[in-house]
Amino acid sequence: MVELYESQRAMRNMRRAAMQRGVVAVLDVGSSKIACLVLRFDGTDRLSNAEGIGSMAGQSGFRVIGAATTRSRGVRFGEINAMQETERAIRTAIQAAQKMAKIRVDHVIACFSGAEPRSYGLDGSVEVETEVVSEQDVARVLAACDVPDYGAGREVLHAQPVNFALDHRSGLGDPRGQVGQTLTTDMHMLTVDEVAIQNLAYCVKRCDLELAGIASSAYVSGMSALVEDEQELGAACIDMGGGATSLSIFMKKHMIYADTVRMGGEHVTSDISMGLQVPTATAERIKTFYGGVHATGMDDREMIELEGDTGDWEHDRRTVSRAELIGIMRPRVEEILEEVRARLDIAGFEHLPSQQIVLTGGGSQIPGLDGLATKILGQQVRLGRPMRVHGLPQAATGPAFASAVGMCLFATHPQDEWWDFDLPVERYPVRSLKRAVKWFKDNW
Prior knowledge:
This protein has 13 helices and 18 strands. It has helices spanning 2-21, 83-101, 135-143, 194-206, 217-225, 228-233, 265-276, 280-290, 313-316, 322-347, 369-377, 402-412, 430-443; strands spanning 23-29, 33-41, 62-71, 75-76, 79-80, 107-112, 118-127, 154-166, 169-172, 182-193, 210-216, 235-240, 245-251, 254-261, 303-307, 317-321, 356-360, 381-383. Helix 2 (83-101) packs across helix 4 and helix 7 packs across helix 8 (280-290).
């Protein structure tokens, strides 16, 4: 964990340096599209930490000056599986965004879905040294959290304190400067497959860029699609992407759970392609123009012309009813929502005081999806669009850009994480010390 701890700290410092220079890019590496936004910082509060430990999502101090998207290549289930193709797609998006912004970008902050995220809840407790809680006390209580054995081949992507308690007072956002004897904390830790992170970092490096931060798309989508009251009272954000559906649960403005279902809009397109025997590009167009999940009597009479280029005139000039199309789409959409429901049940979502569910992402734009989701997931379902940020083009304001807009908020006002504090060295996990000893033996 020392390696990750140091690399995350280095990335945070790099992000601060990039923001001081005034320009940074955010990169959403998805299965269906790769989006890039270039941010310029012009406010004096861009490095302000006045709000303390917590979610500091805001949009003051920056403006989007460049935006570009390109079709994703080499990404499956939110993970890179063809390095050269993904590198080419990232270069295309970055160059187009730089051209629009008329400025060169050296640092990017990236987000991705997939990588099999797992959530853990940790807690720790220490005695306050001088009655008044200091930065060092916060570092010690975070270090006192008992890190579980999350297995080989996994890395910690987020480690965020979500609650502090001082003596009998709980629910503190920032305990620093307060008087008390015993400080306790609850922390949410999210681990992912380390190979997925390494591939993304290596791909960004191959594009001659510096990686100045990395985040889970489940987290950043929730930051942009949930309004402040929903983040405070408890809500789930479901980001239906192309290759994966990310879900996150927020409470008291902190993410307390995240997971990913390895199905998305591309699977619906694939079903249409196989069911109607048409190319994938045609299936995507049919889904976009005629798709839905609720069939009515009118849909039996609404015919869709299928165009093909097989050379067989009879096969290329067919028509199908919209009801038939809906009959292909609905089972897959139901399967995705049922899987999401199972993950929410595992997380104990029904015990939250508010059970608002927000659907976002490109896949959420299927007509009638909110009504179907209400039947499967619960009563309080709405479609969410990302917050408006300054300078964002009209084409990038839809649900498909929830992750990209969330990355802007994450870049400017990140929540404090474990590695933002100077943790006592003796509290590093034993496994990391063994690695360090092995490295020392191998290199000396």
